[in-house]
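Much of our argument rests on the idea that a fold can be written as discrete symbols. Part of our work consisted of pairing the sequence of a single chain with a tokenised description of its backbone. We regard such an encoding as a compact summary of how the chain folds. The amino acid sequence and the backbone structure tokens for this protein are reproduced below.
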Amino acid sequence: MMTTQLFGNSAQHLDQTSHPIYKGFFSNRKKTEASIVSGSKKTVYKLRNSNLKVNNLNVYIQKNHILKNVNIEIPDKKITCIIGPSGCGKSTLLKTFNRLIDDTEGVKLDGKILIDGVDIYDKQTEITNVRKKMGLLSQRPCPLPMSIYDNIAFGCKIHGIHNRKKLNEIVEEQLKAVGLWEEVKNRLNTPASKLSIGQQQRLCLARGLAVEPEFILADEATSALDPISSKHIEELFVELKKEYAIILVTHTLRQALRIADHVIFMYLGEVIESGPAEEVFNNPKQELTRKYLEGAFS
């Protein structure tokens, strides 16, 4: 089945398709944010300027060429989904953004990653400042072995905030941001490990937000969650993109269809195609992208 048949040029066509996976996806999506060009009635859809650019990035691990000449831009205040088959380098690419790749034995990297115009791999760049800009949500929730309250306050203290009143405000604000405040406000001093796995993932998201990042990095952030918790995280991402650029690695094409504004498709360490989600899904430019979307491989 051709991609144009799967995704069509309109929501109505997509609703009418007999394919059970793709039926109705775009008709249920919120419409792309629009801006009106001054002096014109024409509505123009466009991505904001990027704060993160990757130029000619190559990553080698134990002499294996993992990422190959990657050149991409991440749009601001959008959800960017990195898709592709297992082992194509999606998670490795994500780890380069906050320099967690540094901890990998035998890693060698060349090229540039610019955040706000600063090369984060320059020898003069302070790693702590880089990681502060990058909130991280991993595949499985990793709450710290301390109370719910201290999980949120921990990063703030590292970055110099010790005033109790200020910490109280931050904890409440971020727990409200992830929809957890009403569930835990009367047990903030209990161990975070007592929370359900879905609540732990939201707590980890709140912990990342507490240090005021610019980006939220999510590596298969819903894969270990039940369907209700997964839906809650996705809804949080859609809300949080008003303030943050969100970069989500996902093996689930349906998830990208639901929430992606921008898509990066990878295969064997290379970026095959990237662009606005509806453009990539409706009219992929590369044959390999089309085959992946059709389910020829996964």
